[in-house]
Amino acid sequence: MTRQSQPPLLFTGAGLLDPEAGTRTPDSWLLVEDGLIAGSGRGPAPEKDGAVEVVDLGGATLMPGLIDGHIHATAFSADLGAAMDHSPSYIASYAATSLNAMLKRGFTTVRDVAGGDWGLALAVEEGLVDGPRLMFGGKALSQTGGHGDFRGPGRQGNDTHACCPGAGVVCDGPDEFRRAAREQLRTGAHHLKIMLSGGVASPTDRIDSTQSSEDEIRAVVEEAEAANRYVTGHAYTARAVNRGLRLGVRCIEHGNLIDQSSVELFLEHDAFLVPTLVTYEELSLQGAAYGLPAASQEKVDTVLTRGMDALRMAHEAGVNLVFGSDLLGGMQDRQSREFAIRGRVQPAADVLRSATVNAARLLGLEGVVGTLRDGARADLLVVDGDPLADIGVLADPERNVRTVLRDGRVRHERGDADAALA
């Protein structure tokens, strides 16, 4: 799809929020040209030759677009096993709606860690789906009976295929894991995901189990490294987390039950942790209403209460923390609540870094997104209020996110007169 050129866009009267420095500078300007940030500064904007669209923000905050490091765009229900038998066209339509809603909340880049695939990413890139930039890993790799095996105990056989819309692929032994890893990489996956422990949404495993043998984990790590990609691992307990980190897993999803030994390994390996606290809060409140099976509901409390302790421990030690939501089905509209939850433990500046510069570094997009540096993609938010003073501003996007730009183009404007671009 051919993108038409547009004149440069000059924002004036902005409070420029730089998450790298943790500062907000009032009375500032920022110039966008050809979808990139072409300059910024304080005081009067420089004169520009030719046609320039000037937008006076009247003191509103201008900041980088947000990054959610853990989403499932295709998860139309909290019953993840339901997707195995559902129509791919229905799920694609659901994902398009889900991604568009995320964009309107201010998320201009997202990482799908099981379910989203190359076709969905291509649809966003070509403009068929108006959503955030999509970094995908394809299907998560799981042992039989692991967190990516969503068959109930009475279901026999594993008849899913690459074209089926499920979130996981079941494999056993290092050869099968290696083949499955290569299959995801063949489609252009930006990362690989492997199940290292039991989970909430899977029907037949325990939270405290370890999953995937060491040889299986090594095989996946080797394939990712050969392709200049990385492995992220689903894990809750310190035992499962530590095992993955020692074997070369670069990032851990959740980590609610880590201990001090885990923190030391995160620091030693410069690894990343993506807590997803809002999903447990919402599963506890609404999981049953949105299809979470009874067996899974019983697991929620196990991880709900410990998640905040894990976040505090990791933050105080300086672990690389990335924003993630992990919401399923109708609960996805609570995505931005993760900001308020993190704000109970972390200063606002650190929460903002987790959803911008830290996430960009994990995704291999440092200096490209999540920043106001010259030459970065012009993924920008116009926000009422100051998120550095009150992170709750971002927890209520319907009220406070005025305008969303991705690649220098306005993708969403709040529907009141005050939000209109001049």
Number of strands: 18
- Total helical segments: 14
The quaternary state of the protein chains shown equals: single chain
CATH H level, superfamily name of the largest domain: Metal-dependent hydrolases
- Indicate the CATH architecture of the largest domain: Alpha-Beta Barrel
Strand content: 15-25%
Question: Any overview of this molecule?
Answer:
The protein starts with 8 loop residues before the first strand and ends in a 9-residue tail after the last strand. 55% of the residues are buried. The longest helix is centred in the N-terminal third of the chain and has 17 residues, at 88-104. The strands form four sheets. Strands 1, 2, 3, 4, 5, 16, 17 and 18 form an eight-stranded mixed β-sheet that branches. It has a five-stranded parallel β-sheet with strand order 11-12-13-14-15. The protein has a three-stranded parallel β-sheet with strand order 6-7-8. Helix content is 31%, strand content 23%. The protein has helices at 88-104, 118-125, 174-186, 214-226, 238-246, 260-269, 277-286, 294-304, 307-317, 337-342, 348-354, 357-362, 392-395, 397-400, and strands at 9-18, 23-33, 36-42, 53-56, 61-64, 66-71, 107-112, 133-136, 140-142, 168-170, 192-195, 231-237, 251-257, 272-274, 320-321, 380-383, 401-406, 409-413. The protein is α/β, with parallel strands linked by helices and 422 residues long. Strand 13 (251-257), helix 6 and strand 14 form a beta-alpha-beta unit. The chain contains 14 helices and 18 strands. The protein has two domains: 9-65 and 368-419, Roll (Urease, subunit C, domain 1), CATH 2.30.40; 66-335, Metal-dependent hydrolases (TIM Barrel, Alpha-Beta Barrel). Pfam families: Amidohydro_1 (PF01979). Residues 61-410 form the Amidohydrolase-related domain. This is Amidohydrolase family protein. Residues 1-22 are annotated as: Disordered.
